């Protein structure tokens, strides 16, 4: 199946180091070679890059490795196709508007017998179960809350209920963000860590590359990384529980509801 990478920070931060290791799994150190994508929130806007080529061979991926775009919320995905052919429209992340803000979504898993009745404005363009799930999520949120953005508490409860409903159809590891928070749901495998002061050196597991974050950060910086499989060999990654939803704001997970 696919792999996910998310970043949530309290200050705009680049993801070059983590994405460099992650992209290697798109056809070199792993078999996820059916496309890739990454989305960066910048203010009210989103920079979205997708390519149906493997991440290890994509010139666009090479650009991302060398272009330090800074963002407080990032979602990336490398694809191993289970449903939907290899095509640009089937590459994650997907993006839609709700409540006057962009929402970005990516999914790792395979949903069986999942055919939601999509009656509103959220319709899939491609042929993946993932995009159907995203449209169903947003349609359900709009049906529940109307045209008014809910409180974080109400939104968290609703997303938790909806993700568990979708996960009853199969594996549903997913990331979702509106630029103010990053929601991550685990069916089978997700890990996270929080980098904060005192910062240390980190070494990638997929490449011979390391960074001393104490030299490129301030004591006030805080960065949460969420990924399918740990990216580094010398940091303490924490595994999600099965069927767990975590919400990350300003570089840290919110306390359990």
β-sheet strand percentage: 25-35%
Q: How many β-strands, per DSSP?
A: 15
Low-confidence stretches: none
Summarize the biggest pleated sheet: 7 strands, antiparallel
Primary descriptors:
257 residues, alpha+beta, Glutamine Phosphoribosylpyrophosphate, subunit 1, domain 1, seven-stranded antiparallel β-sheet, six-stranded antiparallel β-sheet, 4 helices, 19% helix
Structure characterization notes:
By secondary structure, the chain is of the alpha+beta class. The protein has a single domain, classed as Glutamine Phosphoribosylpyrophosphate, subunit 1, domain 1, CATH 3.60.20. Helix content is 19%, strand content 33%. The chain contains four helices and 15 strands. The chain has a seven-stranded antiparallel beta sheet, covered by helices on one side. The chain has a six-stranded antiparallel beta sheet with strand order 5-6-7-8-14-15. A two-stranded antiparallel sheet has the order 10-11. Helix 3 crosses helix 4. The protein is globular and about 50 Å long. It starts with a strand and ends with a strand. The model has no long low-confidence stretch (mean pLDDT 92).
Task: Give the gist of this structure.
This protein has 257 residues and is α+β, with helices and mostly antiparallel strands. It is built from 4 helices and 15 strands. It is globular and about 50 Å long.
Task: Describe how the helices and strands are arranged.
Elements: E1 3-14, H1 16-24, E2 36-42, E3 45-51, H2 59-66, E4 70-78, E5 94-98, E6 101-108, H3 129-145, H4 152-167, E7 173-177, E8 182-186, E9 191-196, E10 201-203, E11 210-212, E12 222-227, E13 238-239, E14 244-249, E15 252-253
Antiparallel strand pairs: 1-4, 1-12, 2-3, 2-4, 5-6, 6-7, 7-8, 8-14, 9-12, 9-13, 10-11, 14-15
Helix pairs in contact: 1-2, 3-4
């Amino acid at each position: 199946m696919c792999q996910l990478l998310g970043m949530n920070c309290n200050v705009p931060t680049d993801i070059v180091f983590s994405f460099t290791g992650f992209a290697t799994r798109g056809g070199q150190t792993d078999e996820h070679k059916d496309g890739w994508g990454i989305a960066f929130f910048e203010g009210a806007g989103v920079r979205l890059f997708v390519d149906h080529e493997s991440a290890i061979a994509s010139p666009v991926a090479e650009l991302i490795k060398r272009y330090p775009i800074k963002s407080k919320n990032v979602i990336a995905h490398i694809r191993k196709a289970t449903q939907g052919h290899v095509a640009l429209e089937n590459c994650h992340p997907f993006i839609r508007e709700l409540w006057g803000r962009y929402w970005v979504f990516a999914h790792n898993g395979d949903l069986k017998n999942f055919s939601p009745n999509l009656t509103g404005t959220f319709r899939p363009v491609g042929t993946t179960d993932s995009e159907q799930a995203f449209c169903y999520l947003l349609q359900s949120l709009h049906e529940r809350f109307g045209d008014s953005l809910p409180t974080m508490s109400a939104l968290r409860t609703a997303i938790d209920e909806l993700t568990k409903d979708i996960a009853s159809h199969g594996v549903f590891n997913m990331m979702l963000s509106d630029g103010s928070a990053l929601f991550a749901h685990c069916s089978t495998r997700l890990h996270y860590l929080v980098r904060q002061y005192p910062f240390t050196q980190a070494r990638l597991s997929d490449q011979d590359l390391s960074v001393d974050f104490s030299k490129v950060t301030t004591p006030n910086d805080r960065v949460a990384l969420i990924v399918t499989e740990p990216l580094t060999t010398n940091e303490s990654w924490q595994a999600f529980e099965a069927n767990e939803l975590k919400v990350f704001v300003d570089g840290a997970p919110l306390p359990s509801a």
